[in-house]
Amino acid sequence: MRSLGPAEIHVIVVGRDLWRTLPSFWQQSVRARAGWRFEEFLRAVEQGRCEAFWENHTATRMLRRWGDLVPAQRRHLVTVPAPGAPHEVLWRRFAGIVGIADGLCELTAPTANPSLGAAEIEVLRRVNRKLGDRYPLRTPYRRVVHRHLVDAVLKRRANELRFGVGPDRAGWVMDLAEQQIKELQDYPCRVVGDLDELRPAKLTPAGGGDVDDAHLLEVAIEAIVDMLGHADSLSERAEHPAEAAFSRLKHRAAGGVRRRVRRAIRRDAS
Question: Domain of life of the organism in this record (predicted)?
Answer without folding.
Answer: Bacteria
